[in-house]
Write a structure and sequence with these properties.
Chain A is an alpha/beta fold. Chain A is 39% helix and 17% strand. Classes of the chains: A alpha/beta, B alpha/beta. Chains A and B meet through β8, α10 and α13 of A and α1, α2 and β2 of B.
Chain lengths: 378, 204
């Protein structure tokens, strides 16, 4: 690869640049988006790097244009992506639903400001029976790998896939190597629009609710949407990913995702070294949620402590799957930096340690989030 | 709380990681200084992380950056809970230095601006350097931060002066290349100053 340094040594790269390089290594040749911090640096990296790789990067006039440009490029067979932070991805939901329902692959980078987009990533905001496969890397090296995996999975299933990043992944610089992942070869995209007018019939139409043409009838909307729903069931069964450690004899299991899970894992290791019977579970795919694995990991736990930097979103999935739902408690909460663009003081080892210790002993923690107050008033 | 830290510190088999927190105000080159150190370490084949932290202001606002360097893939989190070394470049913003610098840690103070209160710096190994005057004498008045990061590297041996110069030249945008020679003098003079102080400081 021309974008590899000759000695394949470590390069000090901002996370956004590392992700852009990984996307190009994965074959991404079209990117469109609209600037919004902390996504902007990914867009800038793509704008700087894609042309030299024979690709196109467009600073669109809005998020809605950006996602639809990427959808168009993907329909024509390119590996294409868009992105924003959760606020901008909210605007893209209609196009993301169309992408899922008309079976066009698309990679969406949510370089989020915090963890308040869990519902958005896992439930979606468009119409119809679809889901978005979402990977939540814990750090930059994992984000580099996830980026390539997301392009692969998007093409393999013809679905939209999401990278749930954050400011720490977007803006921290670390020494990394961008290497091509060894992923299985995929079949040619025989469904892609190819620009021809006579032969393939792919020039003008991929999707009119699957009714097809007079000469070549499609399955129709009923069978089409059933097939889509069955496909998402297959994805849900096949693509669950998670990471758990020290759960076998754990009284307490901490559950967290993304960057926050790197912090909680650090604290769990510390507490283990201090003799506490504590383990850690991290969903790597937020959808499909690794529910059966969570049930196994929490089988012996008296405390299942959910640390997420929001008012309580992933906790719904944890409650649904934990071995004992009465053991599940929130120890995270909303915590936003004064700039509005990053995490607040809750994402810090001493604070997390205090919350976990309080959760283990069942004592009330300091700084009770508003939603817990509301619940106790009812 | 202290016992938990000592438990962590007791994991002596873990590879050593050096953390430094650099605090100052926008315009002092805090971000460039952090980048220079992190890139120099990377060029030297080490693992490095740079966590920037600054607001919207270009000049005068709070600015800090944390650099972690190690021989192996880093365990450090992007928000580093405790650092072994800190650099304070301005008295208007000491950032999270007071809460993050470990007792006994190395504290470098820009004494051209900051008056180190003996009581405050008591728990640390404090070294005061008048880096603005040093930079001015070298004809590089804007390079006080580079003098300081050079001194830090010379003092700790974390990276050689030549690597810092290579990193600085890489990071300097084309329209600032006229400052490259003066910046190199600042890094080298800082490194020499730090190396001189090495004997006075217990190994970190």
């Amino acid at each position: 690869m021309s974008d590899h340094p000759p000695d394949a040594g470590l390069e000090l790269l901002e996370g956004s640049t590392a992700i852009a390089r990984s996307a190009i290594t994965a074959g991404c040749r079209f990117f469109a988006g609209y600037p919004m911090s902390p996504f902007t640096s990914l867009l800038e990296s793509m704008a700087r790097l894609l042309p030299d790789s024979g690709g196109v990067c467009i600073n669109a006039e809005s998020e809605i244009e950006g996602v639809n440009m990427a959808l168009g490029a993907s329909a024509a067979g390119a590996r294409a992506a868009t992105g924003s932070c959760g606020q901008g991805i909210a605007l893209m939901q209609e196009a993301i639903a169309e992408t899922a329902l008309n079976e066009t692959p698309l990679v969406i980078f949510n370089m989020a400001r915090n963890q308040q987009d869990y519902f958005q990533c896992t439930r979606g905001g468009g119409w119809g029976d679809y889901r978005t496969l979402t990977l939540a890397p814990k750090d930059i090296p994992e984000a580099v790998k996830h980026t390539q995996l997301l392009f692969h999975l998007a093409d393999a299933y013809r679905i939209p896939t999401i990278l749930y990043g954050d400011p720490l992944i977007a803006q921290t610089r670390i020494g990394v190597r961008i290497e091509r992942l060894d992923l299985p070869q995929l079949p040619a995209k025989d469904w892609a629009l190819d620009g021809s007018r006579g032969g393939t019939g792919h020039s003008r139409q991929v999707w009119t609710w699957a009714m097809g043409k007079t000469t070549e009838p499609g399955p129709g909307p009923d069978r089409h949407w059933q097939a889509i729903a069955e496909k998402f069931e297959r994805v849900a069964a096949a693509e669950q990913r998670y990471e758990s450690f020290r759960v076998a004899d754990a009284d307490t299991v901490v559950v967290a995702f993304g960057s926050a899970a790197k912090f909680t894992a650090h604290v769990v290791e510390e507490l283990r070294a201090g003799g506490y019977r504590i383990g850690h579970f991290r969903p790597v795919t937020l959808w499909p949620f690794p529910g059966e694995a969570l049930a196994r990991a929490t089988a012996g736990a008296r405390n299942v402590l959910v640390f997420e930097l929001n008012a309580g979103q992933m906790i719904d999935d944890v409650r649904q799957h934990a071995a004992d739902r009465s053991a599940v408690r929130a120890i995270g909460g909303v915590s936003i930096h004064e700039s509005g663009l990053s995490y607040g003081p809750l994402l810090d080892v001493p604070v997390i340690r205090e919350r976990i210790l309080a959760g283990m002993s069942g004592e009330p923690r300091t700084g009770t989030p508003v939603h817990d107050l509301a619940r106790s008033l009812l | 709380m202290a016992s938990l830290w000592s438990l962590t510190d007791g994991q002596s088999s873990a590879p050593v990681e050096h953390e430094v927190l650099i605090a100052g105000i926008g315009g002092q080159g805090i971000q460039l200084v952090g980048k220079t150190l992190a890139l120099a370490a990377t060029l030297a084949g080490q693992h490095a992380m740079l966590a920037p932290d600054y607001g919207g202001e270009m000049r005068g606002g709070p600015s800090q950056s944390t650099v972690v360097v190690g021989e192996a893939p880093l365990r450090a989190l992007p928000i580093v809970a405790a650092v072994g070394a800190a650099i304070v470049m301005h008295d208007r913003f000491t950032g999270t230095v007071p809460e993050r610098l470990r007792p006994g840690g190395l504290l470098l103070v820009n004494s051209s601006i900051v008056v180190a209160d003996p009581e405050t710096v008591g728990p640390y190994t404090c070294i005061e350097l008048a880096v603005i005057e040093i930079a001015q004498e070298l004809g590089a008045p804007a390079a006080a931060g580079l003098v300081m990061i050079g001194a830090f590297a010379g003092l700790t041996g974390v990276v050689q002066a030549e690597r810092l110069v290579d990193a600085m030249r890489t990071l300097l945008p084309p329209y600032r290349q006229q400052h490259a020679a003066a910046n190199a003098r600042a890094l080298e003079a800082g490194w020499a100053t730090g190396a001189e102080q090495r004997m006075t400081v217990a190994p970190t």
